[in-house]
Amino acid sequence: MKRESNWSDEAWGKIARKIARTSKRIGDGFPHASVEGSYRLEPASWWTAGFWPGLLWLVYRDTKDDSLRNIAESCEAQLDQVVMDYDRLDHDIGFMWSLTSVARYKLLGAEDAKRRGLLAANLLAGRFNLKGRYIRAWNPWSAGEDNSGWAIIDCMMNTAVLHWATEVTGDSRYRHVAVEHSDTVLSHFIREDGSVNHIVIFDPATGEKAGVNGGQGYAADSAWSRGTAWALYGMALAYRYTGEERYLQAAKRVAHFFIANLPEDSVPHWDFRLPEEVTKYRDSSAGACAASGLLLLARLVGALEAPLYRGAAERILHSLYINCGTWDREDEEGLILHGTSHFPEGKNIDVPLIYGDYFFVEGIAQLLGHEELFW
To answer: Does 171 participate in catalysis according to the annotation?
Structure first.
């Protein structure tokens, strides 16, 4: 395993020590956002349920700490009940089972983890709308709501579980769904300048595009930074699995937009297009996700281009380590500060977020030579 510079080695040591401490309190719960220094735990059905066990697997891969393995396996087992009892299981199936079952299968070769991962892939493929060529995002959140035509950029990350399913079974149907959805993203989500729509709404009966919604961004025509990161990383993964040049070019276009719009300290604001009167909170989770995607992208392009993407990723991760890290704070369970979950709804603003922590750790692991991803 190729080692990186001293700061990333130092960061990894601090990550491992902090996770060893916080895992004793969090246990096999499902953290989302830190509230007054402690991660608030959500039900196993919440969309972020995979990130904590995924983070534990990242650290376990290096330390072989069986206490972390036991917690991650317990989290995974709890998701079995979600499949049976939860009515709103949605596109986030990929986030939940890629970082639990697929991760454990890749690391340990466990057959029960493989079966769970394939079940997740089948459930996600079942959300595909043939007419619109998209994977439906959510089920109704309240009585009478109809969001059957809604697709979101986040799902580009979730398509990885479909590519993985084809890879391990040889059944191309999963990949067909992932490719069709990805091509819809190319047509309707990624703009010419590399910025990205969060939500695109289709007529579920005809497949015709009906409009766009700003979602977690400031407005329909703004540029939500975490959505940009989802697109960057998701398209890089699509290229890695398929070799289709159009996905590589899309990943590069989005990457250039992301890099060009970073502030001086390389930690992105929660939206890249904000009017002056709106507070420009940072979103460290967007930066961490983009950095990990940029490191993958650097491995996929030629030697002349790679330093651009790798250099940007290193700058982001180093800034997160120096400016957002909580390494010496025993009063804070999160690893990195200044995440913004959902500004339009006023939820979890300027706090550590578990997915920010996950992608930060994944990014540092890539810097240190771990090239296998759980996606």
So the answer is: no
